[in-house]
TrEMBL record:
UniProtKB keywords: Membrane, Transmembrane, Transmembrane helix
Pfam families on file: PAP2 (PF01569)
Domain Phosphatidic acid phosphatase type 2/haloperoxidase as annotated: residue spans: 103-206
SUPFAM superfamilies: Acid phosphatase/Vanadium-dependent haloperoxidase (SSF48317)
Superkingdom of source: Bacteria
Source organism of the structure: Paractinoplanes pyxinae
Protein name per the record: Phosphatase PAP2 family protein
Matches recorded under InterPro entries: PAP2/HPO (IPR000326), PAP2/HPO_sf (IPR036938)
TM helices/strands, residue ranges: 21-40, 77-95, 102-120, 140-158, 165-185, 191-212, 224-249, 261-282
Length: 314
């Protein structure tokens, strides 16, 4: 008598994979959201945090004409008009690809991230603990705008283009974030908080997309994964060492570490956070509808014409 295999293990495995598929973006959204108030408490509500943040911001000393020109043009190019254009691009591209869900998700993350940033910036108090007397700038509006624009473009593009565009977006957002600190518009914590706000809204948008439409995931392309891992690891090590030195200096001998060293350490930390954020986003965006899976990949499906089937009869 033939014993039929029970389908329960396969069904359970699919259900487990589906749960992870939904919980992953939701978990990232929650963690990124919690990172914002935690960073606010450390960098804004504590004396040492404000001192280190302000030292890094005022430590930039760039006099090279070309560098200054690039930074100024990049900052001036990030405006409300660019946000509107990206939303229109996402809508048109989503309609062309017949992926209205991606277009709506891109609009949600752009609008939600930028509104949240502006709301926090205007409502959060900043006690004057470092004697600078400056108003609150937490989080950075420019960094949020740049990151949300990059996230939206990556989301609506086909999978084959996302890796290259993710690397370009990472470079663009990093330049914007560092430039706002160099221009003394924002402190490093402002830019990191902006990245967390954007990641939270992006992950939430992906969660809603996956909730409404069955999706299959795949690993992020090596084109984006390996460079971001390498850059993130190097800059994270440099940033941690540099900022630890600045903190120790502020506690023991405030004039021991130069402002330029502090700025470079802060820039490395910003770059590391941006690399990690774009690595997560590339992974979240690397998904496609289950209905678009190639027929040749389905179990029992006939092989494409002209290809020999291994193990078949001659």
């Amino acid at each position: 008598m033939t014993v039929l295999a029970s389908p329960q293990p396969a069904t359970a495995a699919r259900a487990s994979g589906s749960s992870r598929h939904l919980l992953a973006p939701l978990g990232i959204a929650v963690l990124a959201t919690l990172a914002v108030p935690a960073l606010y408490q450390v960098a804004v509500r504590s004396t040492l945090g404000q001192q280190v943040d302000t030292l890094v911001m005022r430590g930039a000393d760039v006099h090279h004409a070309r560098v200054v020109g690039v930074l100024e043009r990049t900052l001036n190019g990030t405006s409300l008009a660019s946000l509107v254009l990206v939303c229109l691009f996402a809508a048109v591209f989503g309609v062309v690809r017949r992926r209205l869900d991606l277009a709506l998700g891109a609009a949600v993350l752009v609008i939600g991230a930028n509104l949240t940033t502006q709301l926090l910036k205007t409502q959060l108090p900043r006690p004057d603990l470092d004697g600078s007397g400056m108003a609150n700038s937490f989080p950075s509006g420019h960094t949020t705008a740049a990151a949300s624009v990059a996230f939206a473009v990556i989301l609506v593009l086909p999978q084959a283009l996302r890796g290259t565009v993710a690397l370009a977006g990472f470079a663009y957002v990093t330049i914007i974030a560092v430039a706002t600190v160099w221009a003394e518009w924002h402190r490093p914590s402002d830019t990191v908080a902006a990245l967390m706000v954007t990641l939270a809204w992006g992950a939430f948008a992906v969660f809603v997309i996956r909730l409404l439409k069955p999706m299959d995931t795949q690993p992020a392309s090596r084109v984006v994964r390996l460079p971001l891992l390498a850059v993130g690891a190097v800059t994270a090590a440099a940033g941690l060492f540099g900022l630890a030195s600045v903190v120790l200096s502020e506690r023991a001998m405030p004039d021991l570490v130069s402002g330029r060293f502090a700025f470079l350490a802060g820039s490395a930390a910003i770059t590391a956070v941006a690399a990690g954020v774009f690595l997560l986003w590339a992974r979240l965006a690397a998904a496609y509808p289950a209905s678009e899976v190639s027929v040749s990949k389905k179990p029992g499906a006939p092989a494409p014409a002209g290809r020999r089937v291994k193990g078949g009869t001659k």
